[in-house]
Amino acid sequence: MNFEDYESLPTNNVVTHMTAGAIAGIMEHCVMYPLDSVKTRMQSLSAAGREGIVDTFLKMVRHEGFFRPVRGMSAMVVGAGPSHALYFSCYEYLKNIFIKQTTTARYHTVIYGASGCISTLLHDGIMNPAEVVKQRMQMVNSPYKSAVHCFADIYRREGVPAFYRSYTTQLTMNVPFQSIHFMVYELAQKITNKDGTYNPAAHMVSGALAGAVAAAVTTPLDVCKTLLNTQQVGTTAGLVDAVKKVYIFGGPTGYFRGLGARVMYQMPATAICWSTYEFFKYLLTTTTEVRLVNGPTSVVLAEESPKHETTEKINLKPRELPAMSGAGIYGSISFNTMHSDTGYTNRRKDSILDIVHT
């Protein structure tokens, strides 16, 4: 593959984007899941909110077991695969469609943000139920033994609406999050990866920066989302109710509970997600090209002319030519309307023109 064409080659391959996106999403959530559990605990309104990241993690392990920080991971695997597959494929498709409609790069940053916003609608539609199950299992004294048990109990007690109670809040948070995320990532790529090649270091740095900025800006909404998903302090009906309860129980600083943990989670998580996505996008595209080159079917695009054969183009007007001579690169060419002085004759019947090389 030509590395200069890396960014443009896979943009029309939906299967590549979906496969790479699914792998990237699963990797992101699985690798960083313990820190995500810590973030959820720190955002809990029922907690004191004074413990740091390390203290919260050690407390979980000490009092609830070594594997407590990874409980609920299976829900993320089930949700992250299809949601990120749609997320990245939709983003790439929309980004290219919108860019083709513009004649200047002035609007590209807006296009990146708009594509990310629309892609979020599909992503959150699948991911929201998984988020509910995950956060219910991450809470202190969670009674659920497995993700399946948690899902079944929520469905039996609260019905389907429970899985989408925080959907509007999730969108309210993720639309600006993903807009900032994609815009910062694409802008960072222009600085760290000017050639547009496959550059793992540049993808990781850009992804980490994008995740940190987007996470810090949207932390207040993430606290409200956690309250809606976990229902810790009575029944919380919607975003407005969640905003009021966070202020009542935590004051102005309550909206920034777990800020450090959220930024620390999103930086490596986004870096892992983007670097994994770009790697598999590159790998799958390269594999596809190799198969096309080495496959059983070969397509002849053009035939090479035999060696030592030249083609001379002579433009003749439809009138009788007088005897004339002209010098060319490869020798002298004599045009005779009736005969040849060289003695070489190879005239066809009714021919009025002889071309002889001398």
Give a verbal description of the structure.
Strand 1 and strand 2 form a beta hairpin. Helix 1 packs antiparallel against helix 11, helix 5 crosses helix 6 and helix 7 packs antiparallel against helix 8. The chain has 358 residues and is mainly α. The chain has a three-stranded antiparallel β-sheet with strand order 1-2-3, with no helix packed on it. 60% of the residues lie in helices and 4% in strands.
Q: Can you give keywords for this protein?
A:
single chain, 358 residues, mainly alpha, 3-stranded antiparallel β-sheet, 3 strands
Q: Strands across the major sheet, in which order?
A: 1-2-3
Order of helices and strands: HHHHHHHHHHHEEE
Query: Major beta sheet, specifics?
Result: 3 strands, antiparallel
Please estimate the helix content: 55-70%
Give the low-pLDDT segments.
1-11, 297-314, 319-344, 350-358
The residue-averaged pLDDT reads 76
Q: Please, how many helices?
A: 11
Large-scale geometry? globular
What gap, in angstroms, lies between the N and C termini?
Answer: 50 Å
The proportion of residues in beta strands is under 5%
Which class best fits the helix and strand makeup? mainly alpha
Radius of gyration: 33 Å
Number of strands: 3
